[in-house]
Structure formats: C-alpha cells, structure tokens
C-alpha cells in the first residue's frame, strides 16, 4: 500500500459554460512529497485545487485521495475527508469578524469540537511557530499587514495537523524578503508535519525553494513534470519560456489590440 | 424570431433562478433542524436582528401610530365618526402596518448587511475556507441567520404594535383632546386575538424571507466589490417585494370571508 499515491487525478475535465478550464489533467502526488504546480494566470491551477477539495465538481474524470475515489462523495463523507486537508488561500481568507487566535483555532473548535481554552493554547503555539507573538493573537485580521495575514493563514492551515496541505500562491503580493520568510515557513511546517504538500504558484524562486517535484500546467493540461533540480533542463520549450519569463515563445498571451 | 428567442431565454433564466433558490432554501432549512447548531452564532444574529433593530422599528411604529390618528381624525370627523379612531389605529397597526413596516425597515437594515457580509466572505474565499476547516457554510452562516430572523421579527413586531398604539394614543389624547380612559377602552373593545396573531405570523414569514434573501444573494455573489453591491441591492429589493406579496397572501388566508 505504500506506493499508493496520496492524491491521484485521472483525466479530469472542468468547464464553465463554453470555457474549458481543465482539459484532461493527469497528476500524481506521492506521500510526503512537496509538489509545486507552475503555470500562468488563468490556466486552471486554482480550479484544480478546488476540484480536489470538492469546492468545485469536475465534469468528468477521477480524483483519488489515499486510493479512495472522491468525486462522488456525499456532504457528510466530504466533511470527514476535508479533515485531512489544510489550505492556505491566496488572499489569506481570514474570518474578519473574529480574532486572530480564533481564526487559527477555528478548525479545532468548530471541526473537532475541542474546548476553547485548549484550542487557544494550541493556536498560540502555532502562531509562535510562524513567528508571531501571543499579542498578535488578540488582534483582528484587519489590523495586520499582508505578510502577517499570510502567516496567520499558514498557522490556521497547519493548526489541526493535516496530512495534505495546499498552498494557493503563497508569495503573491509580498515583498521578496517576506516571500522568502513564507517559503521557509512552508518548508519547515511541511517537514515538521510530514505532510504532503501541493503548491500552486507562478513565482519561480518560491517554486525552487519549496518543491521536490514540479509540474507545469498549460491550457488545462499537465505538460511537464520532473524533479525540481531538472527544471532548467526540461527540454520543453513551454517550461523554458515560463521559467525564464520571456514574452516570446510557444506560449502566446492573448492580448487584444484596442 | 429574435423576439421569441429573447423571451425563451428570459423564461429559462427565470426557471433556473427559481430552481436554484428552491434548492438553496431546502438545504438551508434542513440545516436549521439538524443538529449540531452553532448557539454562539445564533445568539449573535439574534442580538443583531432583534436588539439593534429596536430603535429603527420603534421610531417607525411610533410615527405611524401618530400619523394614523391624525389622518383618521381629519377623515372621520367629516361624518362624525371620531369614536372609531382608537379601533382603526389598533387594527391597522397590529394587522398591517406593524408587520409590514417593521419588515421593510429590517429588510433594509438586516437583509442588506447579511448580503454584504456573506457576499464579501464569498469573494474573499472565506466561504471556501470554512469548508476546508470542516465547517459547513450552510450550518455556520445561513442557518443561524434564518433562525434568528424567523424568531426575532415577531418579537420586534409585538413591541412595534405596543409602540404604534401608544403613538396613536398620544396624538388622540394630547393633540385631539380625547378622553384617555375611553380611548384605551375603545382600543381593547374590538381587538381580537386573531388581529395580533395574524400580524405575528406575518412577521415570522417576513423574518424568514429577509434572512433567506440576504443569505441567498450574498452566497451567490461573484466578482468583487461590484458583485457584492449588486447582491446587496438584489437582497433588499427581493425581500421588500416578497414581503408585500406574502402580506397579501397571509391576509387572504386569515381574513378572507369566502
């Protein structure tokens, strides 16, 4: 059983109206592996994560988690399955009506029905793990800077020690130093938990730092996967263009003349 | 032929919206009656809807009662029927104006706030974050608002009834020089339980409709600030119109002679 992939996508399709977003995604993530999915904006990276989480339903195809088919789960089984997952959202998505520590403890209190004082202790410890003081825990999310919000969101994603963590553009909108801080925290947290991680990003510095393996998504398909160290010698023109951030190449941005 | 296509398309959109709303309502109500319930959320919403709406609803009721007394005096004095003013005030307030005006005021205050809050949570991915933290958004966000709306509006209307009748009393006694005790006697004389009860039933339905519209349009909102603004407008307009429609239907149920 050890070689069952943690997550396996087979031929996953998803379209919104006439717009095809996922066009037959095939992807496997091994247990304890850190996979980074790179790709331009609007290529379906976020939609892919949301399909795995069940926030969106794929039109066809199979998504297995621990070898178990998840595309046809009822809401109760889905809730149970989501206990395995943690997610860091692109815009942090903190609940602004409750305090920072309550945000971090949310999954423990609401999801696992832990008593509040105990959950608060754990939340404060997790905040410490991402380099925030207990005083920050008493503030509201709106009082924090963008970088601090990302760290709180990271603390929330790891609070109930998930087996699988998703990171949706973890470094977008941060300065390079804060981005590196977040990258190192991600690497540390994933290693400490022994979790499986899937990160989607278009920040190559971040990808090189976090990834064991890198996959590139283009036009709703995975066009390349390989070890992180092989990314500069992929032999794939699309990947090369993306890694070096060139406007010229096989990937043409659709820029309409006005 | 374009005309037919446009008509057909509009009709299909209408059917789709009706179906979506029906499914949304079904899911919401099923979460209201299935444990666990989030007591903390329900109490918060009850305070928001019940307690903080008191000033607005109270003032509305007070001035409505006052103006009713004035208007009926100037009208009824033409055929020497001033004696009926107390009865007209109490019946109008308990049967119609109390519930309808309170409903419309609360729709503006609470329906808009719900749509804006849930809409913002939707576009900033906070609702997705709830799901990944093993918390059902229907149970955590929608059910507490429906429960609080349906239970708090009747209480508000009961208070509004008292304040409205008191407003009529003030104007009649201090401005129109009626005898206070005979005004009170006449107020009670023709009042029947069904007058008040029908008003409270209306209030419960209006409270449900207001919360449902606020949650539904907030939940379905898309695309940033503009989408949230649109959702807020739609929630208030839909709630207001539905209040007027249901007001007619419930009045028909209680008081139709045939």
Number of helices in the DSSP assignment of chain A: 10
Spans of at least 5 consecutive residues with low confidence of chain B = none
Class of secondary structure makeup of chain A? alpha/beta
- How many strand elements of chain B? 0
Helical element count of chain B? 9
Q: What structural class do you assign from the helix and strand content of chain B?
A: mainly alpha
Task: Describe the protein in words.
The complex is a heterodimer of chains A (258) and B (258). Chain A is an alpha/beta fold and 258 residues long. Chain A has a domain at 1-75 and 197-258: P-loop containing nucleotide triphosphate hydrolases (Rossmann fold, 3-Layer(aba) Sandwich), CATH 3.40.50. Chain A contains 10 helices and 10 strands. The model of chain A has no long low-confidence stretch (mean pLDDT 85). Chain B has one domain. In chain B, α3 runs antiparallel to α4 and α4 packs across α7 (180-189). The longest helix of chain B has 39 residues, at 85-123. Chain B is elongated, with a radius of gyration of 21 Å. The relative contact order of chain B is 0.16. The model of chain B has no long low-confidence stretch (mean pLDDT 90). Chain A binds chain B through residues 50, 53-55, 75, 79-80, 82-83, 85-87, 89-91, 93-97, 106-107, 110-112, 156, and chain B through 38, 117, 121, 124-126, 128-129, 131-136, 140.
In short:
The complex is a heterodimer of chains A (258) and B (258). Chain A is of the alpha/beta class. Chain A has helices spanning 45-53, 75-82, 100-104, 106-111, 116-129, 134-137, 146-158, 176-193, 204-210, 237-244, and strands spanning 7-16, 19-29, 34-38, 60-65, 68-69, 85-88, 164-168, 196-201, 213-218, 221-227.
Task: Reconstruct the topology from this structure.
The complex is a heterodimer of chains A (258) and B (258).
Chain A (H helix, E strand, L loop, with lengths): L6 E10 L2 E11 L4 E5 L6 H9 L6 E6 L2 E2 L5 H8 L2 E4 L11 H5 L1 H6 L4 H14 L4 H4 L8 H13 L5 E5 L7 H18 L2 E6 L2 H7 L2 E6 L2 E7 L9 H8 L14
Helix pairs in contact in A: 5-7, 7-8
Chain B lengths: L1 H32 L5 H13 L2 H23 L8 H39 L2 H7 L4 H39 L4 H10 L3 H28 L3 H32 L3
């Amino acid at each position: 059983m050890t070689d069952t992939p943690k997550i396996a996508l087979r031929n996953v399709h998803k379209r919104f109206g006439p717009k095809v977003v996922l066009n037959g995604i095939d992807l496997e993530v091994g247990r304890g592996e850190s996979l980074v999915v790179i790709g331009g904006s609007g290529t379906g990276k976020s939609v892919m994560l949301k399909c795995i989480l069940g926030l969106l339903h794929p039109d066809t195809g199979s998504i297995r988690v621990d070898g178990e088919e998840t595309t046809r789960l009822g809401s109760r089984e889905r809730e149970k399955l989501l206990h395995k997952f943690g997610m860091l959202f692109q815009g942090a998505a903190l609940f602004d009506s409750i305090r920072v520590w309550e945000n971090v403890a949310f999954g423990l209190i609401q999801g696992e029905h832990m008593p509040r004082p105990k959950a608060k202790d754990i939340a404060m410890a997790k905040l410490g793990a991402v380099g925030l003081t207990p005083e920050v825990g008493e503030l509201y999310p709106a009082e924090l800077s963008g970088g601090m919000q990302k760290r709180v969101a990271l603390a929330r994603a790891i609070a109930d020690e998930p087996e699988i963590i998703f990171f949706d553009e973890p470094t977008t909108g941060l300065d390079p130093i804060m981005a590196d801080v977040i990258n190192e925290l991600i690497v540390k947290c994933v290693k400490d938990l022994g979790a499986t991680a899937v990160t989607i990003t278009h920040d190559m510095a971040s990808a090189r730092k976090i990834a064991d393996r890198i996959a590139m998504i283009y036009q709703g398909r995975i066009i390349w996967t390989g070890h992180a160290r092989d990314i500069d010698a992929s032999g794939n023109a699309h990947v090369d263009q993306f890694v070096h951030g060139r406007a010229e190449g096989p990937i043409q941005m659709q820029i309409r003349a006005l | 032929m374009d005309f037919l296509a446009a008509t057909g398309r509009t009709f299909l959109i209408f059917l789709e919206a009706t179906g979506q709303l029906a499914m949304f309502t079904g899911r919401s109500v099923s979460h209201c009656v299935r444990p666990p319930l989030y007591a903390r959320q329900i109490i918060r919403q009850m305070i928001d809807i019940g307690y903080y709406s008191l000033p607005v609803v109270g003032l509305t009721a007070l001035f409505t009662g006052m103006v009713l007394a004035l208007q009926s005096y100037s009208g009824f004095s033409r055929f020497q029927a001033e004696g009926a003013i107390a009865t007209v005030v109490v019946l109008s307030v308990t049967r119609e104006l109390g519930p309808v005006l309170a409903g419309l005021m609360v729709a503006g205050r609470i329906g808009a706030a719900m749509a804006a809050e849930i809409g913002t949570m939707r576009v900033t991915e906070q609702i997705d974050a709830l799901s990944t933290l093993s918390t059902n958004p229907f149970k955590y966000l929608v059910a507490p608002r429906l429960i609080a709306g349906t239970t708090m509006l009747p209480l508000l209307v009961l208070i509004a009834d008292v304040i409205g009748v008191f407003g009529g009393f003030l104007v009649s006694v201090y401005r129109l020089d009626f005898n206070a005790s005979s005004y009170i006697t006449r107020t009670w004389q023709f009042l029947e339980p069904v007058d008040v009860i029908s008003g409270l039933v209306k209030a419960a339905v209006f409270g449900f409709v207001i919360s449902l519209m606020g949650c539904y349009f907030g939940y379905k909102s898309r695309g940033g600030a503009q989408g949230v603004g649109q959702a807020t407008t739609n929630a208030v307009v839909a709630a207001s119109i539905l209040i007027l429609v249901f007001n007619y239907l419930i009045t028909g149920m209680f008081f139709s002679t045939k």
